[in-house]
Specification:
Blueprint (H helix, E strand, L loop, with lengths): L3 E7 L5 H21 L5 E6 L7 H10 L4 E6 L6 H14 L13 H10 L3 E3 L8 H9 L3 E4 L15 E3 L4 H13 L1 H18 L2 H19 L7 H6 L9
Parallel strand pairs: 1-2, 1-3, 4-5, 5-6
Helix pairs in contact: 5-7
Length: about 240
């Protein structure tokens, strides 16, 4: 299997603060990401411009470490020119445009409509906690193929309400997607099981109940332990009339 490296790619900044803060922020994010990556996967932060290492330098650094397969994770907080112009230009230059359909920014309604038309949802993360996009797709009932990274295995029943694959294993990913396209019964079973599992968990009532439970547990933990009076210890009855 190829040696994999991950580049966390930020915009970059030419401002006085950005020259210092962007590399430092990337360093901190990269250190956290490294702790979550599978053993043997390298990670490095990079900027598209203005800061170092830039993308080319990051690729060279990984190549020196023996990496022959690079995954780029965009770390863009806003849809600036890199997203709207530079990445599309790069896709065109690489000649892979016919395989990529960029939908641009979508409203919640447009996103739901696109998911309803989709035959499969794919989550290809190397690092993941609780993925909102995966929850949304499974709530709608889109058959899902998901990377078994981070917290994902705890959110699915592999083979019953989603199909998993090892992070970075594109061969298994492709095969799982092919299974859904070739087997309508499998796609239907995954869809129905996902909705049955996810909708109760992510309903408004469940969210409110979990939030109330969290607050109640915090309140209980912060209440100081009340000591018994000698009379309460002798009688077994609290001063407010409750039995101990």
């Amino acid at each position: 299997m190829p040696q994999t490296g991950v580049i966390i790619l930020a915009h970059g900044s030419r401002g006085e603060r950005g020259i210092v803060e962007v590399p430092e922020a990337l360093r901190m994010v990269t250190e956290e990401v490294k702790r979550l990556l599978p053993p043997g996967v390298e990670a490095i932060g990079a900027a598209l411009q203005f800061n170092h290492p830039n993308l080319e330098e990051a690729v060279e650094s990984l190549a020196v470490r023996g990496v022959d397969r690079v995954v780029i994770m965009p770390y863009f907080l806003f849809p600036g020119r890199h997203i709207t112009e530079h990445i599309p230009q790069l896709i065109e230059r690489l000649g892979v445009g016919e395989h990529i359909n960029s939908l641009g920014r979508l409203t919640a309604e447009e996103m739901a409509d696109e998911m309803q038309r989709a035959h499969v949802f794919s989550l290809n993360s190397f690092v993941e906690n609780e993925c909102n996009a995966m929850a949304e797709a499974r709530t709608i009932g889109v058959p899902s193929v998901v990377s078994l990274a981070g917290g994902v295995p705890g959110q699915i029943d592999d083979g019953r309400n989603a199909l998993g694959f090892p992070p970075g294993d594109e061969a298994v990913l492709a095969e799982q997607i092919r299974r859904i396209f070739r087997d309508d019964d499998l796609a239907t079973r995954l869809s129905q099981a996902a909705r049955k599992t996810v909708r109760p968990r992510h309903s408004l009532q469940s969210a409110v109940r979990r939030m109330v439970d969290i607050h109640e547990s915090v309140i209980r933990a912060e209440q100081p332990e009340r000591r018994q009076t000698p009379l309460e210890a002798q009688t077994g009855v609290m001063s407010d009339g409750r039995a101990q």
